[in-house]
Design a protein that fits this description.
elongated; 7 strands; Immunoglobulin-like; single chain; alpha+beta
């Protein structure tokens, strides 16, 4: 009697083990092709809708995804083709339609370069003046229309010469 019960348990364990393998490895296989040419489309992203199960099609367009639930949807997406949603039961051969991408307006501008301009170049002459009183020399720079085209002024430097330390 004990042997008979032991054999029944072994059969049950074997049956459970086989069924676990069957349910644990349920997969859906298929191929993704171009709807116009019939050629396979490589590297298509395939995933189960609203889940984290996904894969990528091989170079020959074939894919294997770990789901066999016929009520779920598979989403197929790749650049240059319209995204398609298909029932798992209909995913043996999936045809994707090419889609043209229309880009918005593109504006091309010249490279922005930093430009330094010295206005009113002066001669490099050392002059000595012997005066008894204070003196102020200045140079007038008339406004020119080309200054208006300067959108950004990085730096303005005013040079002074004084015998007083830290004079500005």
């Amino acid at each position: 009697m004990r042997e008979e019960r032991s054999k029944r348990q072994e059969k049950r364990y074997l049956l459970v083990f086989l069924l676990m393998g069957f349910f644990g490895f349920s997969q859906t296989k298929g191929v993704v092709k171009d709807s116009i040419t019939g050629q396979p489309i490589p590297y298509v992203s395939v995933w189960v809708e609203n889940e984290t199960i996904g894969t990528t099609a091989e170079e020959n367009g074939e894919f294997i995804i770990n789901t066999d639930d016929k009520n779920k949807n598979l989403v197929f997406s790749v650049l240059g083709y319209e995204r398609k949603v298909v029932k798992v039961s209909d995913a043996v051969s999936v045809l994707l339609s090419p889609s043209a991408l229309e880009l918005g307006e593109i504006t091309i501008t010249n490279k922005k370069e930093k430009k330094q301009v010295e206005i009113g170049k002066t001669k490099s002459v050392i002059q000595e003046a012997f005066d008894n009183g204070p003196r102020m020399d200045a140079k007038f720079f008339p406004y020119q229309k080309e200054y208006a085209r300067t959108k950004w002024i990085q730096k303005v430097t005013i040079l002074t010469d004084s015998k007083v330390e830290d004079a500005t």
